[in-house]
Amino acid sequence: MKSSLILVVFATLCGIGFSLECYTCSVAETDPDFDKTCIDHPEELLATDCNKNYCTIIRQEYKDEENIVASMYRGCEDYPMYINKTFEDETYRFYYFSCQEPLCNGGSGKSPKTALRMRFANSDDIGVFMKVTNSYALLGGEEHSEHVCSLIRGDLSEIPVINTSLEGCRVIGRMCVGNKNGLLLPEATYDTELQHIRNELPDSVKVETIQDRLSALGNVIVCNDHVAIVHPDLDKESEEIIADTLQVEVFRHMIANNPLVGSYCVLSNQGGLVCADINNSELENLSSLLQVPLVVSWHHKQGNKTVASGLVVSDHIAYAGMKTTSSEFTAIDTAFGLIPPRHY
Ligand SMILES: *[C@@H]1O[C@H](CO)[C@@H](O)[C@H](O)[C@H]1NC(C)=O
Ligand SMILES: *[C@@H]1O[C@H](CO)[C@@H](O)[C@H](O)[C@H]1NC(C)=O
Ligand SMILES: *[C@@H]1O[C@H](CO)[C@@H](O)[C@H](O)[C@H]1NC(C)=O
Ligand SMILES: *[C@@H]1O[C@H](CO)[C@@H](O)[C@H](O)[C@H]1NC(C)=O
Ligand SMILES: *[C@@H]1O[C@H](CO)[C@@H](O)[C@H](O)[C@H]1NC(C)=O
């Protein structure tokens, strides 16, 4: 008697404290009358006044098919299984999302921050074949990369994803550099390629070419939306084009005595990952120069110092080569504030 009274009082207090309105619906493709309202327009359904800590979404997509939803759940829970997490099994990609504002679970459920494993162009050196920024992505796709290209298009549905070669080559990650504001291409880029890229990019993204003896721009320049580090021997004119096109402050710098800064460092606006050869004193100096926290990459037996060949990032997503280990994912997570996937 007494304890049930306490329970009632407690529940009432909690009710006042945690009243939270959430969308509540669920749908699976196996339902006899599969209706996508819960997936695309939950606001057309009745919301529920929940006595819970979190509004939640669990979205289940086919790993192999762009944006094809197998099931969608919107609800409210005190203790969600995962607060915010993305992971894959053999067939599906699962997105868990939790939030604490009224009606905050009306979105797609795809967390904007996820680190995902993939192979591109049949290679783990995905950074060699692609470039991702906050306003566009370039892919050096081949005929048989349609599948992976469409996965990326699904992940990055808000920005243009452009399949292109540069000078007829697929190793575009090595050859160009860019950020939210601009894109720099080698002078020898074909006119047809340049035209294709200009057509696909929004007008706000400036496209320029650079004529420099150091023509592998992706290897000699690394940038985010605010700063760039460049190979110390880059031409003065190149430096000016970089500053102007990418709207960044430019620093000539080496990383651990290596001038290939674009291979040895990966940057977002949140942070950066640097090759393992760097010592603490240099790391601190570089971090204060760039004004972002930097993390030193893994250094195990298979470790590859050229971090940029196995990793591409924006502020919203990271892709890492299939061979990336879980300790490497931890470094990526720490460096960029991303949520690493959990594999079964
Ligand atoms: C989960 O991630 C979303 C999007 O980044 C964020 O708005 C939300 O606050 C996060 N949830 C929690 C409980 O931290
Ligand atoms: C990408 O473009 C190349 C030609 O530049 C083409 O051969 C390939 O089929 C395209 N791939 C996709 C996935 O569109
Ligand atoms: C750290 O590395 C820099 C550049 O490679 C070098 O000049 C410096 O002497 C090193 N400092 C220490 C304490 O090892
Ligand atoms: C880092 O900066 C400090 C202070 O300017 C300097 O003494 C030190 O030599 C620098 N370290 C490296 C590796 O450049
Ligand atoms: C590191 O990756 C680059 C780019 O693919 C490759 O050329 C190089 O051989 C790799 N190094 C090691 C030690 O695996």
Coarse morphology: globular
What is the arithmetic mean of pLDDT?
Answer: 87
**What small molecules does this complex bind?**
2-acetamido-2-deoxy-beta-D-glucopyranose
Number of domains: 2
**In CATH terms, what is the architecture of the largest domain?**
5-stranded Propeller
> Counting H and I runs of at least 4 residues, what is the number of helices?
11
Unreliable stretches, pLDDT < 50, 5 or more residues?
1-16, 339-344
Radius of gyration (CA) equals 23 Å
Report the strand count: 23
Assign the CATH topology of the largest domain: L-arginine/glycine Amidinotransferase, Chain A
Look at the structure and give the CATH class of the largest domain. Answer: Alpha Beta
* Main β-sheet description: 6 strands, mixed
Relative strand content:
25-35%
Fourth CATH level, the homologous superfamily of the largest domain: L-arginine/glycine Amidinotransferase, Chain A
What gap, in angstroms, lies between the N and C termini? 46 Å
Q: Can you list the strand order of the major beta sheet?
A: 2-5-4-7-6-23
Helix share, percent: 25-40%
Function: Binds to the 60S ribosomal subunit and prevents its association with the 40S ribosomal subunit to form the 80S initiation complex in the cytoplasm. May also be involved in ribosome biogenesis.
Pfam family, one: eIF-6
Keywords: Cytoplasm, Initiation factor, Nucleus, Protein biosynthesis, Ribosome biogenesis, Signal
GO molecular function, one term: ribosomal large subunit binding
